[in-house]
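Revision sheet: C-alpha cells.
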Amino acid sequence: MKILIIEDEPQMLDNMRDTLEQERYLVETASTFAEASFKIGSYDYDCILLDIMLPDGNGLNLLKQLKDLGKEEGVIIVSANDSLDDRIQGLNMGADDYLPKPFHTAELNARVQAVLRRRNFEGNKYIEIGNVVIDPESRSLTIADKEVILNRKEYDILTYLISNKTRLVTKAALAEHVWGDHIDQADSFDFIYSQIKNLRKKLENATIKVGAVYGIGYKLELD
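Predicted:
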C-alpha cells in the first residue's frame, strides 16, 4: 500500500514516515503545497495524510484539487489546527477522517488501516476470494487454509491487483504504485516480470490468477 504524507514539520514528518514504514507501507512525502500539488497530480496513492497549514498554501485546497481530478485516494487530515470549522469543511469536501495533533503512533496506524479497509476492501478486516484469504494487518496469505509466504513486493502486487480487480492495470501504474515515484527513472519494467513470475508460482493452487495482456499490463483472474 502506498501512502503520501503532506507535512511541513520535519520531525513530525520523519516520525510519521518511520512509523508507517515499520508497518511496511510504501511511503512518500511532500513538505510544501507546491510539491504536494505536483505529486497529487502525477501519481496515485492509497491514502494521503494531509496537513492543513503549509508554508505556501492551505491543505484544504489540495483536497479540492484531488476531488477536481476525480481521484479516489483516502484522505486523513492531520493538523494541529483543531478548528471545528476546518474539520467540518474538510469532511464535507470528502476527507475520510480527521486526526488532531498530537497523536499516538498506534492511533495513526489504526486510522490508516481503517481508511484502507473502507477504500480498497469494502471495510472488511480480511480479503476473501475463493480459497484465498489475506490479512492486511499481518500481511499474510493463506490458500486453502495453508499459509503462503510472500515477499513485500509480491504482496503489494497482489493486493494492488485485488483492489483493482475489475480493471486492467498497466505495467507503468503497477510499477509506480509498488516501487514509488522514482520508477520514472527506470529504463524498462523488466524487474516486474520476475516478481510476477514468482507470484504466479505461489498462486498455483489458488482460485485467483495473475493474467497478462501482452504489452499492456495485468489483471486479476478468477478460476
